Amino acid sequence: MITLVTGATRSGKSEWAELLAQRSQKSIIYIATASSKVDDPEWQNRLDDHRDRRPYDWQTWEVPIALAAALESAEASSYVLVDALGTWLANVLEQDQTTWQKTEQELIAAIKACEADITLVSEEVGWGVVPAYELGRRFRDRLGSLSRKIGVIADVVYLVTGGYAVDLTQIGERLPF
């Protein structure tokens, strides 16, 4: 089972994904794509908020880059929660287009092959202005495209906004890819 949870900043997408994981009643593997930055107190507070919400019995894997390999190593009896794709993408954003396409293909293949139930959290970044700088446009375009590709293979896609989770697979129609 592949689930994609997407939404804006502070919309509740991580909390919704965590609730889905808890409801599974399986052994949870929480894949954190963010790295600690001791010189950035605001970032550390964000990480602490996420860490404080997680039950003590969840396994936490810190995977800033090798996400495909981590998914390949998850046991079938587990429930994998990846939070979040945007942070992971930021960690590999400097890749040239050819390398990025290979990385993206490997991730999509690993998601499809993952025997565990998996929920991926992704930020919605394309609802604002076009970034004025190339790296910002690259981030927005790559994350938008990656989220769409995962949405196509996902069994369920939720949009979280204003504290509500909306099941897009129930009310929407999947676009051809």
What is the class in the CATH system?
Alpha Beta
End-to-end distance: 20 Å
As a percent range, the share of helical residues equals 40-55%
Q: Uncertain regions: pLDDT < 50 for 5+ in a row?
A: none
CATH homologous superfamily heading: P-loop containing nucleotide triphosphate hydrolases
Number of helices: 7
Which structural class is indicated by helix and strand composition? alpha/beta
Chain-wise SSE layout:
Elements: E1 2-7, H1 13-24, E2 27-32, H2 41-53, E3 59-62, H3 67-72, E4 78-83, H4 85-92, H5 97-113, E5 117-123, H6 134-153, E6 156-161, E7 164-167, H7 168-171
Parallel strand pairs: 1-5, 1-6, 2-3, 2-4, 4-5
Antiparallel strand pairs: 6-7
Explain what the structure shows.
One of its GO terms (biological process) is cobalamin biosynthetic process. With 177 residues, this protein is of the alpha/beta class. It has one domain (15-133, 142-170): P-loop containing nucleotide triphosphate hydrolases (Rossmann fold, 3-Layer(aba) Sandwich). It has helices at residues 13-24, 41-53, 67-72, 85-92, 97-113, 134-153, 168-171, and strands at 2-7, 27-32, 59-62, 78-83, 117-123, 156-161, 164-167. It has a seven-stranded mixed sheet, sandwiched between helices. Helix 2 (41-53) links the parallel strand 2 and strand 3. Helix 4 packs across helix 6 and helix 5 (97-113) packs parallel to helix 6. The longest helix is centred in the C-terminal third of the chain and has 20 residues, at 134-153. The radius of gyration is 16 Å and the shape is globular.
